[in-house]
């Protein structure tokens, strides 16, 4: 049947180097242009030379009439199908033929396309289209081989891909299982960088040849270009609660990490497997847990990542379940340098996230002398909600702490006090005591920059929602 979205399992259209209205010289279908020896543009020291020579000897591939192979040229879907026909003539049929609207019966590769389809290598696009002249990406060629040869991964897909490729996150979701299987079978050849799969780049004639060699006669491609799962180590973290189990994988790379992927299963069935939308700077694992955050009897998944360094920064990725759609969606919460703690402030068996406002960090002075007014968040209705004003006792205690910090540091000068006074005033506005707070801060800050400091402070508090009509 026709594939609904992606051209998964695209057949190896083997005629690489087709001339207009002619049979492709790569397919071995025309003895008039056969090249049974070497090609003028493939030198003996070429990385793919041994493979290309062997496939030419077997009449699986051919060159052009001028004696060239053109190893860097792209390969069309029709050419790839022709190659599959030549390379795997005995592969059994697994489904009935289909009529592609853009492949007329007299098209040079019509028979090869039908065979590639019937044998499970290639499928089509919606509306029964095959698009035979489209260049084939590397990932589609690998999916085609894995599909037609009935390869299946024996290890978890994410583990295989993360262990083999620096760009594992670029592999489309529809192709991940097949590419993992192809990797385990040593079909994937990456030249010149073994760690770079480049899945969406169009495959070259040389690359397609090496994929075929790895399937037909291994040992002809230099091993330093054959992808394997020994490229990187992969860390796996797991957590579970009730029927929800989460697995987080990533590749540690000193001093950071990358390729974060998450898999969430419910009662043993995978509901989500995807790359995490991680910001570039957040490249260290911090924490993973599964907990009901909003009291709906559905545990949420919380992944904490941080950037490392002396001061910054932590973010949480919170995945909530939508039963109607049987899907997870995530929200990101940036905590900055203070991170957070989970605490049940209301004694209702639901935790609050207690943190500090990261926007104050280094806003009025250096990080070390910055005060961060308290922030309290709840996860409700698939969103994070700022509920700080609901906890006046904690706000008051936080304001007292900032005032004490100011008192301890006031003899050190303006830069040592600006941050603590800003946080204190923010807390006073949260308590609805803004006017009193301003009087105290203005008395406490006698330095030469006081006029500009107060202008900047008022603008900042107003911009960030601390100054309201009820907190003046």
From TrEMBL:
Q: Which SUPFAM superfamilies match?
A: Integrin alpha N-terminal domain
Occurrences of domain SLH (ranges): 35-98, 99-159, 162-226
Q: Reply yes or no: does the keyword DNA-binding apply.
A: no
Q: Where is the signal peptide?
A: 1-24
Alphabetized, the UniProt keywords read: Signal
Quote the protein name from its UniProt record.
S-layer homology domain-containing protein
Q: Which source organism does the UniProt entry give?
A: Trichocoleus desertorum GB2-A4
Organism lineage? Bacteria, Bacillati, Cyanobacteriota, Cyanophyceae, Leptolyngbyales
